[in-house]
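Deviation from plan, reported transparently: uridine-5'-diphosphate complex.
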Amino acid sequence: MSNVLVTGGAGYIGSHACKALLAAGYTPVTYDNLCTGWQDAVKFGPFENGALTDRARLDAVFAAYQPVAVMHFAALSQVGESMTDPGLYWHNNVAGSLSLMQAAVRAGCLDLVFSSTCATYGDQDNVVLDETSPQHPINAYGASKRAIEDMLRDFEAAHGLRHVIFRYFNVAGADPEGEVGEFHRPETHLIPLILDAIDGRRAALTLFGTDYDTPDGTCIRDYVHVWDLVEAHVLGLQWLAAGKGSRVFNLGTGSGFSVREVIDAAAAISQRAVPVIEGPRRPGDCTRLVSGSVRAERELGWRPARSTLERMIGDAWRWHQSGHYRK
Ligand code: UDP
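Because the crystal trials were delayed, the predicted structure below was used instead.
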């Protein structure tokens, strides 16, 4: 079986990607320093502990496994933190990715699937964003990911490093079979925080801002099921292997839901009340981020079939209540 090097394979999206890769006939080799990931989420292939900036360690791992491609998830991804400590984002995300790309080129491993974000687009009210929309990030997280996209283009021109860039919208849900799921410490994402508030792990959800220019005053996001998302990554890998060349794809559903709509859906699915405290806006938050994913559907044949609020929150809720979810 062909090896694929998965940076961040111990994290939320990376661990699901490893499961999808194994199901598609690849061996996922997780490269992760466990700064935000969990070793017990590495269930589908070998684990190599290492930092992206560790040149010697990366060279040794490339030499040992001879991967046919890299899937690059390892990154810090909290918008709020990126506003208070931008240096962390430029160092971890940008310098780390540069080191990885240089190692991939040294090893002659020239297909790379990159986890980017809709946060690279910034605040563009009332537009459905497509891959040609201008990128004006309003937080350091989005800026760091845009910088990596630029590096990938330069590395392709100079070194032939082919890439598929996926710009995600809001990833949610868990493995429908319950083997892996979402667990961050600290948790900052809306759906797991709502579920924590429902089952008493936290006192209440703080709703960040009720005065946005949206129908109910709360931010609108496009939520995509993590399993749909990782299936797109396997399609991206196959796209590169087929020699179709570098490409950018948005991954979302084209439907936006407000924070209040997500809270109401979670209450309905769990049949429990959600304690909510209304708070001020969170710095760095865009009003509305909704994807046009026509390109991924048309060119990759991707169908976000599981990405209904009901399935995303339902799978997350089952994971949340399972013995796997950490107390
Ligand atoms: N949000 C919220 N309370 C929280 C966490 C998030 O109101 O405790 C809101 C946040 O302001 C945004 C949406 O939920 O409008 C999604 O935030 P999340 O952090 O999950 O993802 P992001 O859009 O920042 O990638």
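The CA atoms of residues 249 and 298 lie 11 Å apart. We consider this an acceptable substitute for the interim report.
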